[in-house]
Design brief:
Strand 3 and strand 4 form a beta hairpin. This protein has helices at residues 10-16, 34-44, 86-91, 158-164, 221-231; strands spanning 3-6, 26-29, 49-54, 57-64, 69-74, 100-105, 119-121, 124-127, 144-149, 152-157, 171-175, 178-181, 184-185, 199-204, 210-215, 236-242, 247-249, 254-255, 264-269. With 271 residues, the protein is α+β, with helices and mostly antiparallel strands. The radius of gyration is 18 Å and the shape is globular. The longest helix is centred in the first third of the chain and has 11 residues, at 34-44. The protein contains five helices and 19 strands. A seven-stranded antiparallel β-sheet has the order 3-4-15-14-16-12-13, covered by helices on one side. It has a five-stranded antiparallel β-sheet with strand order 5-19-6-17-18.
Length: 271
């Protein structure tokens, strides 16, 4: 019995279609009833993402709930180059992989797509914590780390992580700047600065849920930081990136295409 993976010509789509929409990935087995079950599951499974509005701007808020989901990081196939796109991530998943709730870009990277800061995937650290100074958003101190193990997810400044986190987490990715720190907006983020871009970030609320937010249009750092502090009520939030921000949400048939990515954060359905 042959196994088929119904992927919507992802590589062709990536090359020919610049629109930020795509087709979901379904894993099926012809003749066993699995195909029909997968199609029904995709049709009835509610998306973990919803549209919200804050200060007149629209955002997509994707919520990872530890009761329903697991989180991991993904860079590329083991021993190979980075995926560089959510489409390639989708196409590279095996037929026995858990169902995807959603996936997003997950931290800053170099020209080859490899992380420039702390990175852990499946408990294996491939990049140590960066505490160096330099240009760009990543080095707008304090920057921070999003990490977790066994359904407990956290965000800490890089200095806090260095001083207080001794055990290696199951996943971890470093980015910057921090948006919210202990309920306060990053001291270098102005109310509504001139830099505008499509941006995304992550924050963990009091219930332990991780909110992955991506803006519908160009916004300032200030708007994104206030969204996390005032509406989503996350005491700490971390900027993931801008302009390359992308989301794969199979349940809503969304697969963003755009600039090459580096690390990705993958939220999977629990068995």
């Amino acid at each position: 019995m042959k196994k088929l993976i119904l992927l919507a010509a992802l590589s062709v789509l990536s090359a020919c279609n610049p629109e930020p929409e795509g087709q979901p990935v379904l894993r099926t087995e012809i003749g066993s009833g699995v195909a029909e079950e997968a199609e029904i599951a995709a049709a009835v499974r509610a998306s973990a993402c919803k549209t919200i509005t804050f200060e007149g701007e629209k955002f997509t808020d994707c919520i990872a709930d530890p009761a329903k989901h697991t989180i991991t990081t993904a860079l590329g196939p083991k021993g190979k180059e980075p995926y560089r796109s959510l489409a390639n991530l989708a196409g590279g998943r095996g037929s026995d992989a858990p169902l995807i709730a959603f996936a997003v870009n997950g931290g800053m990277f170099d020209k080859a797509g490899k992380p420039i800061g702390y990175y852990v995937e499946n408990g294996s650290r491939t990049k140590e914590l960066s505490r160096t100074d330099g240009p760009g958003n990543f080095h707008l101190k304090p920057n921070g780390v999003f990490f977790g193990s066994r359904g407990k997810w956290d965000i800490r400044t890089s200095d806090d992580f260095y001083s207080n986190v001794g055990d290696r987490p199951n996943f971890g990715t470093q980015s910057g700047p921090m948006l919210v720190i202990d309920g306060k907006i990053h001291p270098e983020i102005t109310e509504n600065g001139p830099s505008k871009a499509v941006r995304n970030g992550v924050g963990v609320d009091a219930e332990g849920r991780a909110h992955f937010v991506i803006s519908a249009g160009p916004i300032s750092f200030g708007v994104l930081a206030r969204l996390y502090r005032d509406q989503l009520k996350t005491p700490d939030a971390l900027f993931l990136d801008g302009n390359v921000s992308a989301l794969w949400d199979p349940a809503s048939d969304r697969l963003d295409m755009g600039a090459p990515l580096g690390p990705m954060i993958v939220v999977e359905m629990k068995e």
